[in-house]
């Protein structure tokens, strides 16, 4: 396989994303800063999140009578707790508990940069830029809309208690964007590997080359599978956290939405219920979307990795249906061996080594949300 000169690497592609992550004490995975100033920044970020959490929780409890329903108050408190916990766990894992794993992940991806070309790198860098712009536009919209609904519902003095929620949601969103882009990086390299394998087989047949060696493709496929395992080690807890937070938040969000829609919860100051209903609906869709994005990214990457075996079988049928020369027979034998070894590999993304990330898991979580809402409604009655 001919190695093309690569001007970009994964650090260049993730540059904008890493810049925003550093503000939240979520550094570049390869160049983890160990200076005292950066450690001070990490500790300061953790301290800030804890202070905002205690301050917001205290004021929410102090003003609990202003909430239209006890269920709404519980929803606000539970959301604050689980979002803050996710942010703290993410910062601790990135900077301390999974430092080496993050470095290995980036090194593996950088080592396989020769599979990519400059055009692919430019496309991915452009996609990340568009993603970040979209994320910030969405958060600006949510922030403005939440201010509006909170002011007309509870007056302006209680809105500031929700600022920690937005900070924690921003941390979660950037972490999800990062995880999906790492998965996308692995997928792109799997895809480039499959395309290169096709070209290599066709070229070998056309040139009647006797040096048919597919071991390098096996080694690269093994390296990418190992990279997926490293990804699971780095982000397993965060993915589980996103699913858990999403399950709790969507359950309570749907529950409160139904309470308002049915008239069992009244909004203070006789304001139209429409604004609050829309806010809870957006809130539910936001967390559902995070889970869907992670699942789609992981499933697509795993499928591309498993597709290598299909590529081998297709080349056997299309290029080598009836091998005649010694070269073709040797190539067919090696392709069969490669397809057999690749097809036996379990290529899956997992959270904490027990929860497989696929559409079945996602549907189960959605089903659990619906069941939990039904139980809460029965308890309310």
Plain-language structure description:
It comes from Tribolium castaneum. This is Gustatory receptor. Pfam families: 7tm_7. One of its GO terms (cellular component) is neuronal cell body. By secondary structure, the chain is an all-alpha fold. It has one domain (10-380). It is 78% helix and 1% strand. It is built from eleven helices and two strands. Strands 1-2 form a two-stranded antiparallel ribbon. Helix 3 packs across helix 7, helix 4 packs across helix 7 and helix 6 (118-154) packs antiparallel against helix 9. It is elongated, with a radius of gyration of 25 Å. The N and C termini lie far apart (68 Å). The mean pLDDT is 84.
Shape: elongated
- Largest β-sheet summary: 2 strands, antiparallel
The rounded distance between the terminal residues' Cα atoms is: 68 Å
Which spans of ≥5 residues are poorly predicted at pLDDT below 50?
Answer: none
Radius of gyration: 25 Å
- What is the ordering of alpha helices and beta strands? HHHHHHHHHHEEH
How many helices? The count is 11
Number of strands: 2
Strand order of the largest sheet: 1-2
Function: Gustatory receptor which mediates acceptance or avoidance behavior, depending on its substrates.
Protein name: Gustatory receptor
Family: Belongs to the insect chemoreceptor superfamily. Gustatory receptor (GR) family.
Subcellular location: Cell membrane
